[in-house]
Inverse folding.
């Protein structure tokens, strides 16, 4: 199937309802117990204050419907390989019925472009188990977990040469 024609643009506060609808649709499609999804879903939703700390882009289809979202911020350098300046990708969410149509890849490319824009050295992501293959396909490498039990198990890194 050819990639869906989408436009990637900066997210606006007026997009919050549509953004959270996509996130809810994505999270509820994950293969997790229903209770886990229900309890964790509020932590994935964005609110107006998030625009003060995160950069967000949305994928919009030709009917101007938001079908995907990506968000990132500057990463804590103590948590990056070699303590390099990097962006932390909070997530890429795509309407589940539109998976495998290139939308996630386009959103990921926006995050990569932001790495250049901010003169960072790489992109870090903490991924759900099922998303690991996607991030590997985007050229990311899985980081080894250290002895810190608080460390997220599925962390991925992509070095970007500025």
């Amino acid at each position: 199937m050819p990639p869906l024609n989408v436009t990637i643009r900066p997210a606006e506060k007026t997009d919050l309802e549509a953004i959270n609808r996509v996130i809810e649709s994505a999270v509820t499609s994950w293969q997790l117990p229903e209770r886990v999804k229900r309890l964790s879903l509020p932590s994935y939703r964005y609110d107006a204050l998030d625009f003060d700390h995160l950069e967000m882009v949305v994928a919009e289809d030709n009917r101007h419907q938001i079908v995907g979202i990506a968000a990132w911020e500057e990463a804590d350098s103590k948590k990056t390989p070699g303590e390099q300046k990097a962006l932390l990708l909070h997530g890429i969410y795509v309407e589940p019925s539109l998976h495998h149509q290139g939308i996630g890849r386009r959103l990921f490319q926006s995050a990569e472009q932001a790495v250049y824009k901010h003169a960072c050295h790489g992109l870090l992501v903490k991924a759900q188990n099922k998303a690991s293959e996607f991030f590997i396909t985007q050229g990311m490498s899985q980081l080894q977990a250290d002895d810190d039990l608080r460390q997220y198990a599925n962390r991925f890194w992509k070095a970007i040469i500025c």
Remarks:
- Helices lie at 16-29, 34-44, 103-117, 132-137.
- Residues 7-159 form a domain with the Aminopeptidase fold (CATH 3.40.630.30).
- The chain has one domain: 7-159.
